[in-house]
Amino acid sequence: MENLFNLPMVAKIATDDYVGFTFFVGCMAMMAASAFFFLSMNGFDRKWRASILVSGIITFIAAVHYWYMRDYWAANGESPTFFRYVDWVLTVPLMCVEFYLILKVAGAKKSLMWRLIFLSVIMLVTGYFGEAVYRDQAQIWGLISGIAYFVIVYDIWLGKAKKLAQEAGGAVLQAHKTLCWFVLVGWAIYPIGYMAGTPGWYEGIFGGLALDVVYNIGDAINKIGFGLVVYNLAVTATKSEEAAAA
Ligand SMILES: *C/C=C(C)/C=C/C=C(C)/C=C/C1=C(C)CCCC1(C)C
C-alpha cells in the first residue's frame, strides 16, 4: 500500500477492535516507561543503576516487539504468537536477573540467577510448543509449563531467594516481597490467556476471552510494574542512606 508521497499507509483500526487498541496503547506505554527508566537512571547511586537499566531494557525490548505485533495484528488479524514468545524469552529471563540484582546486597550468587533463568526458559518454550507447534496437545505442554512456573514461585517465595531477602531486610525485603506478589498474581494472568486461546478441557471456562487482550494486560502490569518496584526501591534506599549520612 502506497500513496502519492510513497509513504507506507497506516492500517485502519476498527472502533470495536479491542485487541488492536491494546496493542497500540501497550506499545506507547512501553515506550513511555522506557524513557522514564533510562532518563531517571543516572540520578541514583551506582549500585542501583544496573537494576534500573535492566527495568528500562525490559520495557524497551517490549516496546519494539509491540511495534511489530501491533502491525502484525493490523495486517493479518491473527495473534502474533512468534513475536510474543520471542519478546517473553528475552524479557522474562531479564526479570529473573532483577531478582538477582536486588539480592546481591545480601550476597546472592549467580547460580540463583541461572536457576531462575533456566526455569523461565522451560516455562516459555513448553508454552510455545503448546500454543504454536503442537496445538492439539496444548493441555500437556501447558501443564509442563505450569510446573516450571510453580517451581519459580516456590523458589522466590520460600526458597533461597527468600532467605537472602530476609538477610538483606529493610527496603530490599519489601521490594522482594512485592516482586513475589507480581510473580504469583501478575504472572498468573498468562495461563488464563493461554487457556483462552488453545483447545482443552478449560475452553468452556476461558474460551470467550481474547488471548491477546489478556496477554497485553499482563505485559503492561508486569513489565512496567516490576520496573516501578525496582525504581521505588532505589528511591527509598537512597533516601535512607542520605538520612543516615546526615
Ligand atoms: C513480560 C512477560 C512476562 C512476565 C511473561 C510471563 C509469562 C508467563 C508467566 C507464562 C506462563 C505460561 C504458563 C504458566 C502456562 C501456559 C503457558 C504460558 C507460557 C502462557
From TrEMBL:
Keywords linked to the UniProt accession: Chromophore, Membrane, Photoreceptor protein, Receptor, Retinal protein, Sensory transduction, Transmembrane, Transmembrane helix
GO molecular function, one term: photoreceptor activity
N6-(retinylidene)lysine: modified positions: K223
Tagged with keyword Membrane: yes
Transmembrane listed as a keyword: yes
Localisation per UniProt entry: Membrane
Xref: CDD domains: 7tm_Proteorhodopsin (cd15242)
UniProt membrane topology term: Multi-pass membrane protein
Gene Ontology biological process terms in this record: phototransduction
Protein origin, superkingdom: Bacteria
Parts of the chain that traverse the membrane: 20-39, 51-68, 88-106, 113-134, 140-158, 179-197
One Pfam family in the UniProt entry: Bac_rhodopsin
Post-translational modifications reported in the UniProt record: Contains one covalently linked retinal chromophore.
GO cellular component, one term: membrane
Broad class of the protein's primary localization: membrane
Family listed: Belongs to the archaeal/bacterial/fungal opsin family.
Name by which UniProt lists this protein: Bacteriorhodopsin
Lineage: Bacteria, Pseudomonadati, Bacteroidota, Flavobacteriia, Flavobacteriales
